[in-house]
Amino acid sequence: MSSERSREQKRGRDPSAQPAKRGSWTSGRWMVLLIALVCAAPIIASYLTYYVIKPKGGATNYGTLIEPQRPISEALIVEDEAGKTMPLASLRGRWLMISVDRSACDKACATKLYFMRQIRATQGGERERLLTVWLRTDADAVPAEIEHAYPDTAKFIADPAALSAWLPAETGATDLDHIYLVDPNGNLMMRFPKHPDPNKIKGDITKLLKWSSIG
Predict the structure, then answer these.
(1) Residue 10: CA count within 13 A, CB half-sphere
(2) Whether 171 and 72 share a structural domain
(3) Looking at the structure, do residues 121 and 198 belong to the same domain, yes or no?
(4) Which pTM was predicted?
(5) Which residues of 19-53 are buried (b: 16+ CB within 10 A; e: fewer)?
(6) At what angle do helices 107-121 and 198-211 cross, to 10 degrees?
(7) Which of 90, 135, 165, 203 could link 158 by a cystine bridge, Cβ 3.0 to 4.6 Å?
């Protein structure tokens, strides 16, 4: 045995060193995998939380999760204030907080627009990830005071039938009664109740922006 080891050493090889090299390579491979998992963790966590885990009883979200997913149809065409038409799906890439209402915008409509503006403002540095959208169901004129109060809210005219088909409402309500949330992938994600508590909406959106890296 000692003579064989001596011959190996003379040839410049040490058989006992080979296992150490294999162990070092394996350790490096696991380190790379660990780094990849850490980098992907925020994305994985956000999707598990809102699309896989189905909270019951102790649910912490205020809004109603929309299941199954309802992506924005490419056929849903809207018209902006300049008269230009575009697919609503072209707004993908940011979180969308959506209100549907008539152009005349009564008190309930104005309240929803106010809530959306304030909720977005409270997100601080994250607010640019969130776009407030008013989908008008007719082409009538918008009251001047509403136009001036919400310059940062994107306003579009859309077909009311197409909106009703896409946006589910609570029993006894219509899509005009709710505020909706669409994720940056263009999927309708959440519906907030009629006469909502804006602080609770803020809580849901703050958590989403914190834990999700998309948008």
Answers:
(1) 6
(2) yes
(3) yes
(4) 0.74
(5) eeeeeeeeeeeeeeeeeeeeeeeeeeebeebbeee
(6) 40
(7) 135
